[in-house]
Inverse folding.
C-alpha cells in the first residue's frame, strides 16, 4: 500500500542511494516500460527497491485511447512485471501513442468527445482486465485546444465512473494546460471529487524558447515552480491527504536533492489538518 | 471523426506539417504548438538510440550521431513502447549509409546492441555440476543451451579492443589500429556485469554449435575440425566457471 506521503520518481542511477536512505514513509514510482525486460541488474535493482519500499508502476506507452486497442504483448509484459513486483498502484495516461504504423513515444492528446471517451474507456477496460485490478488515469498536459464536447474534468470523471478507474491528478499538467489553453486551474481541481483521486503528481516544466509568453512544456526537467506548489496546496486542501509523487525525468540531480524537494511536498499535508 | 483526427495527427508526426489538424482545433489555436509532440517524439527516440549505442555515439560524435539517428527513426520508427531494446536494425542501417571514414561502424553498432541484449537478459540459473560429473563419459552426449545473456557477434573488422575502451569510458590507446580482420566476440552477463572477450575460430564454432542445440560431442567435433588441439575439458570447465551454460541438461 502506498502511504499517504510524498514519494519520488526513481531512476536506476539512484537505486543505491535510495536503498541507503532512512527517510520514513518514502515510496517510489517508476516508468513501467523501462522494466519490461528479461532481467539483469536494472530489474534486480528494482526488485531490491520493492523489498524495502512501496512502489507504484506508472505507464507511459499503453496507448489506451488510441485507434488500436492496447497491444496484447504490451499488456502481457506489463502483467508479468505487475506479478513480479506487486506494485501498490498502477497508472496510465488519458492519451494515445500508437497506431498501425508505429509507436510515437509521446503522449498525444485526445479530443474530449463522446467517441474518444468510449475508446478510452474500452482501452482502460482492456488494461484493467489484463492486469486483474483497477488503475489510475492521469490528466495530460495540453498544448493545443482541440474542438471538444466537454471540459477535461467532466471527461475524466465520466471515464472514471464508467470504468471504475481512479484518477491521478497531475497539478503541473493542470498548470501547464491552464497557461497554454486558458483554463481555470483551481476550477479544474475543484471539479474533481476527492474520492476519485488516488494520487497527485508534481513536476517541473520549461518555457518554450520560440513562444516564451504562450507555451509551457511539461518536461519534468527542472524543480517544481512556486505556482505549482501553490496549486498543490489547493489540491491537498480540496482533496484531503493523498499520496504525492515528485516526478523528475530529465536533468536529473543527485538523489539527495530530490529528497529535499520531496520534503517540501511532505510539508503540505498539515494544510488538510492531517499530521504526517 | 476520431479516426480522421488520429490519421491527421499521424501524418503530422511523419511530415511535421500540421495543416490537416486545423479542422480539429479551436479557431485561435496556434498550429505551431503541435511541434511539441513531434519534438518530444524525436528527442525521446534519438536519446533512446544514443543510450543503446553509446560507443557509436562516442566514435562519430554526437552531432553526426543525431543525424544518423534521426534518419533511422524516420525509416525504422519504433513499433513498441519499450525503447530499451530499440535499434535492432541500427547496425545494418549505419552500414548502409556511405561512410568511407568509418567502414567498421556496423561492427561497433553490433557490439553495442549485443551488449544491450545481454544487459537486459536474465543471467539464468546455475548448472548443477554434480549432476554433470555423474555423467562420466556420457557427457559428450549432453545437450545444453547457452545462458540467455550470451551474445555471439562476428565482425568484419577487429574493432573489439577499441570498442571495449570506449565501452569502459577509458582513454583509447593511440597505438590501436583497426584493420579488416574478422573477429568472433562473446558477450555474457555474470554477477550482473556484462563481460566480453574475443573467441578463437574453434571456440566460436563450439559455442555456435551448442547454440544450435547440438550435443557437446558434436560441438567439440566442430571446434576440432578447425583446431585439432581444441581441449573440450578445459573449454567446458571455463564455460561452467563463467556461467555461460544453461539448463536443461539433456542426454541422447
Amino acid at each position: 500500500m502506498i502511504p499517504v506521503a510524498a514519494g519520488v520518481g526513481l531512476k536506476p542511477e539512484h537505486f543505491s542511494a535510495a536503498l541507503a536512505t532512512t527517510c520514513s514513509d518514502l515510496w517510489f514510482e517508476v516508468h513501467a516500460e523501462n522494466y519490461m525486460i528479461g532481467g539483469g541488474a536494472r530489474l534486480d535493482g528494482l526488485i531490491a527497491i520493492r523489498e524495502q519500499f512501496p512502489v507504484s508502476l506508472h505507464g507511459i506507452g499503453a496507448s489506451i485511447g488510441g485507434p488500436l486497442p492496447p497491444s496484447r504483448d504490451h499488456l502481457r509484459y506489463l502483467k508479468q512485471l505487475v506479478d513480479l513486483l506487486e506494485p501498490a498502484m498502477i497508472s496510465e495516461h488519458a492519451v494515445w501513442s500508437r497506431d498501425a504504423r508505429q509507436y510515437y513515444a509521446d503522449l498525444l492528446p485526445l479530443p474530449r468527445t463522446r467517441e474518444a471517451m468510449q475508446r478510452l474507456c474500452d482501452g482502460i477496460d482492456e488494461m484493467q482486465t489484463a492486469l486483474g485490478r483497477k488503475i489510475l488515469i492521469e490528466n495530460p498536459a495540453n498544448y493545443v485546444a482541440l474542438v471538444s464536447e466537454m471540459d477535461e474534468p467532466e471527461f475524466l470523471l465520466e471515464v472514471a465512473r464508467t470504468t471504475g478507474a481512479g484518477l491521478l491528478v497531475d497539478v503541473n499538467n493542470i498548470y501547464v494546460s491552464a497557461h497554454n489553453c486558458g483554463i481555470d486551474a483551481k476550477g479544474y481541481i475543484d471539479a474533481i471529487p476527492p474520492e476519485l483521486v488516488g494520487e497527485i503528481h508534481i513536476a517541473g516544466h520549461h518555457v518554450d524558447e520560440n513562444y516564451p509568453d504562450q507555451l509551457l512544456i511539461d518536461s519534468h526537467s527542472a524543480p517544481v515552480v512556486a505556482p505549482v506548489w501553490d496549486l498543490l496546496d489547493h489540491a491537498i486542501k480540496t482533496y484531503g491527504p493523498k499520496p504525492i509523487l515528485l516526478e523528475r525525468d530529465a536533468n536529473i540531480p543527485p538523489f539527495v536533492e530530490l529528497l529535499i524537494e520531496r520534503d517540501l511536498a511532505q510539508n503540505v499535508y498539515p494544510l488538510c489538518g492531517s499530521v504526517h | 471523426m476520431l479516426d480522421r483526427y488520429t490519421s491527421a495527427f499521424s501524418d503530422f508526426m511523419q511530415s511535421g506539417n500540421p495543416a490537416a489538424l486545423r479542422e480539429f482545433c479551436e479557431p485561435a489555436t496556434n498550429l505551431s504548438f503541435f511541434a511539441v509532440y513531434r519534438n518530444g517524439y524525436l528527442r525521446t527516440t534519438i536519446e533512446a538510440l544514443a543510450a543503446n549505442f553509446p560507443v557509436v555515439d562516442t566514435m562519430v560524435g554526437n552531432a553526426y550521431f543525431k543525424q544518423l539517428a534521426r534518419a533511422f527513426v524516420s525509416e525504422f520508427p519504433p513499433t513498441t513502447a519499450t525503447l530499451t531494446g530499440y535499434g535492432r536494425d541500427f547496425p545494418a542501417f549505419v552500414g548502409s549509409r556511405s561512410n568511407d571514414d568509418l567502414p567498421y561502424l556496423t561492427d561497433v553498432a553490433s557490439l553495442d546492441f549485443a551488449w544491450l541484449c545481454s544487459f537486459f537478459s536474465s543471467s539464468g540459473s546455475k548448472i548443477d555440476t554434480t549432476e554433470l560429473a555423474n555423467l562420466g563419459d556420457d557427457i559428450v552426449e549432453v545437450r545444453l543451451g547457452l545462458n540467455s545473456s550470451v551474445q555471439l557477434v562476428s565482425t568484419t573488422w577487429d574493432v573489439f579492443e577499441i570498442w571495449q575502451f570506449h565501452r569502459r569510458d577509458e582513454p583509447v590507446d593511440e597505438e590501436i589500429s583497426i584493420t579488416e580482420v574478422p573477429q568472433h566476440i562473446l558477450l555474457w552477463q555474470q554477477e550482473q556485469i556484462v563481460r566480453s572477450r574475443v573467441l578463437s575460430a574453434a571456440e566460436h564454432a563450439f559455442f555456435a554449435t551448442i547454440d544450435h542445440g547440438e550435443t557437446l560431442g558434436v560441438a567439440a567435433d566442430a571446434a576440432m575440425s578447425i583446431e585439432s588441439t581444441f581441449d573440450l575439458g578445459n573449454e567446458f570447465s571455463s564455460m561452467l566457471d563463467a556461467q555461460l551454460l544453461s539448463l536443461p541438461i539433456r542426454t541422447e
Remarks:
- Strands of chain B lie at 142-146, 151-155, 183-190, 193-199, 245-251.
- Chain B has a mean pLDDT of 91.
- Chain B has two domains: 1-102, 103-252.
- Residues 1-102 of chain B form one domain.
